[in-house]
Amino acid sequence: MQIGIIGLGKMGFNLALNLKRNEYQVVAQDVNTDFVAKIGHEGIEMAYTVEELCQKLSGRKVIWLMVPAGEIVDAVIHALLPYLSPNDILIDGGNSNFNDSKRRYSKLKTLGIDFLDCGTSGGTSGALHGACTMIGGDPEVFDYVAKVFKDISVENGSLYTGAAGSGHFTKMVHNGIEYGMMQSIAEGFEVFEHSEFDIDFQKTAKLFNHGSVVRSWLMELTENAFAKDPKLDGIKGIMHSSGEGKWTLETALDLGVPTPVIALSIMMRYRSQMSDTFSGKVVAALRNEFGGHAVEKNE
Ligand SMILES: NC(=O)c1ccc[n+]([C@@H]2O[C@H](COP(=O)([O-])OP(=O)(O)OC[C@H]3O[C@@H](n4cnc5c(N)ncnc54)[C@H](O)[C@@H]3O)[C@@H](O)[C@H]2O)c1
Ligand SMILES: O=C(O)[C@H](O)[C@@H](O)[C@H](O)[C@H](O)COP(=O)(O)O
């Protein structure tokens, strides 16, 4: 089976190799021509434009998008449209907002193009060796490409989640959970860091992965990170985010569902990007006003 893949960054490049290993005939395109040339060296058919990509795909086209979420996904779909035929299948494997995916599904439906939204988890190593995929869209369209998802995923690592949007909705909530779990691990190690004991972080993370309740891939990655840099002295504690945690919180608020851990995890990410806060100044000033409590002054 032939598959087109658009976007050869951290995820798409590995996914293309994963598909090739599973004996799919992959045609790959990216706006970054260096990435296209690099995938060509892996023996994968290259395309420098979406037109060329579509020309190299025969029959019912299956095209996997692995580009940054947001306007780029709309732009790529728009660029593809002149070269698509009814019943061709677009799969968005990125971390798109599920509301965008519902909108894209409906718009493409009016043009006769099939659309599946696929949440893809497992990071870059998962994309290469076996991912976790959660797919929304029409069941008959899913059935047509079900084997693709099964082949590129680990055993039991692929699920048809239902109506259009549900794949990205599932991935959004997954990432909300991810925020909370990572923040919890981080806070535990912060307590160690401030304690009276000389706790070895790497050995402790390793220990926690052997028989403890909190053993997990995230804890393994914690061990890896401390193995590279025992006190993480080489990096700053600034935590960026791509949006899925925020969308999970927004959705939970819309649904009236309390999600305090996820909410605070997001707040901590935002706080980490500020060296000082205006709210801190206000509270310090108020304590000083009502109780004469000391404030720390700027130099
Ligand atoms: N990195 C991860 O661990 C991970 C895991 C799961 C899902 N995702 C999601 O997968 C998507 C891709 O992530 P990534 O980490 O590979 O990002 P990336 O930035 O490494 O790669 C994106 C690629 O898209 C290409 N691109 C941008 N605009 C394009 C266009 N108009 N046409 C063709 N190519 C274009 C870029 O040149 C780049 O090579 C995102 O939605 C991301 O949130 C990332
Ligand atoms: O399941 C996964 O493989 C990850 O969750 C993946 O999707 C990615 O690493 C996140 O996009 C990071 O999200 P933040 O940038 O929001 O932390």
Automatic annotation (TrEMBL):
The keyword Lipid biosynthesis does not apply. Residues 167-298 form the 6-phosphogluconate dehydrogenase C-terminal domain. GO terms for molecular function: oxidoreductase activity. Keywords: Gluconate utilization, Oxidoreductase. InterPro entries: 6-PGluconate_DH-like_C_sf (IPR008927), 6DGDH_YqeC (IPR004849), 6PGD_dom2 (IPR013328), 6PGDH_C (IPR006114), 6PGDH_NADP-bd (IPR006115), 6PGdom_BS (IPR006184), NAD(P)-bd_dom_sf (IPR036291), Pgluconate_DH (IPR006183). It comes from the Bacteria. Its EC number is 1.1.1.343. Pathway: Carbohydrate degradation; pentose phosphate pathway. Belongs to the 6-phosphogluconate dehydrogenase family. This is Phosphogluconate dehydrogenase (NAD(+)-dependent, decarboxylating).
